[in-house]
Design brief:
Blueprint (H helix, E strand, L loop, with lengths): L4 H6 L1 E3 L3 E3 L1 E6 L9 H11 L5 E9 L2 E7 L2 H6 L11 H9 L4 E6 L1 H17 L4 E7 L7 H12 L8 E5 L2 E6 L2 E6 L24 E4 L8 E5 L2 H7 L5 E4 L2 H21 L1
Parallel strand pairs: 4-6, 6-7, 7-11
Antiparallel strand pairs: 1-2, 3-12, 3-13, 4-5, 8-9, 9-10, 11-12
Bound molecules: flavin-adenine dinucleotide and iron/sulfur cluster (SF4).
Iron/sulfur cluster binds next to helix 5.
């Protein structure tokens, strides 16, 4: 974490959201999932020479998605927005190191953030100059692609493969397709949730360098949790509009997720 008296004093620890030095809402001007902060930070990091590559997630056909590498701002832009699926990013990280990349950003869910941070230690032992910055996304749960396709067809009458955008916000799942919005309650899609997600207790990506989500922010803004020196360095000088975030909402969802994980583990 941050060194020196000023930064040391600013670091706080919350039992629900982990270590942080700052929590704020921001919009970047990029038309992303929420405030476009993930995309803006990846591009800013590349422009400042902090990243020479990033692991992102991209659609491969319809709504299916997988990890991909981005080495230019255009490639980062092409990967913006969220697919609410669990995607493994660790093999791409290893691949980038093997290809000679040394300053790597990884965008991922909390479970993958934990893996990436654990891998960083092994990678550093093999290749000491590797620097991995993990941008973790808030995540209450992820869906199984095939089940989500079936359920959104049954409940909303839409083909998820044709979705221009999907959104989870305030208990609602929205599919944007053909210029229209189709909504249902997230709880109506319970049958499509990945089983492993029910016992997962990390909402805010506690292992990441910085965590980003929509909870705690108004529409069109991203909530940012700054957790490390690397995150503070990345944010320095970025041109964004910042407002106060509703931290209590992140705490509420983090507690709710922990409670669900405990109940699910007891049932198993
Ligand atoms: C499975 C999942 C569940 C989520 N649940 C919540 C939630 O309950 N509450 C909440 O506040 N936020 C949640 N989010 C985060 C939210 O959807 C946005 O990703 C976040 O607010 C960042 O918005 P942005 O505008 O800054 O992103 P953008 O600038 O649009 O960039 C989005 C980035 O996310 C990457 N990405 C897209 N899909 C995935 C994926 N499946 N896995 C890893 N990376 C991906 C893209 O490559 C891109 O780099 C979830 C994200 C995922 C992946
Ligand atoms: S709920 Fe947990 S296990 Fe499921 S995708 Fe999100 S972080 Fe990963």
């Amino acid at each position: 974490m941050a060194e020196g008296n000023k930064e040391e004093a600013a670091v706080q620890k919350d039992e629900n959201i982990g270590v942080f030095s700052e929590v704020f809402s921001a919009r970047s001007g990029i038309d992303g999932q929420d405030g476009g902060m993930v995309t803006a930070l990846l591009i800013w990091g590349m422009q400042k020479g902090l990243f020479d590559a990033a692991v992102v997630v991209q659609r491969t056909g319809g709504y299916r998605a997988q990890a991909a590498t981005a080495e230019t701002p255009d490639e980062v832009m092409a990967a913006r927005r969220t697919e609410y699926l669990r995607v493994s990013t660790s093999s791409k990280l290893r691949e980038l190191v093997a290809c000679g990349k040394r300053r790597i950003a990884v965008v991922c869910t909390p479970c993958e953030a934990f893996v990436a941070k654990s891998m960083q230690q092994t990678l550093k032992a093999e290749t000491p100059d590797v620097e991995v910055t993990v941008i973790g996304l808030f995540c209450f749960e992820a869906f199984n692609y095939a089940k989500l396709k079936k359920e959104t067809q049954r409940i909303l009458g839409v083909d998820i493969d044709k979705a221009e955008k999907t959104q989870i916000h305030k208990g609602k799942f929205t599919v944007h397709t053909d210029g229209k919005e189709h909504n249902c309650r997230i709880r109506d899609l319970d049958g499509a949730v990945e089983e492993g997600c029910r016992v997962c207790s990390d909402f805010s990506a506690r292992s990441a360098d910085l965590s980003i989500g929509s909870a705690g922010s108004p529409a069109g803004y991203s909530t940012v949790i700054v957790r490390s020196d690397a995150a503070e360095k990345l944010l320095e000088g970025i041109d964004i509009v910042k407002i106060a975030a509703e931290k209590e909402e992140i705490v509420r969802l983090s507690k709710l997720k922990k409670e669900r994980a405990q109940k699910s583990a007891c049932r198993a």
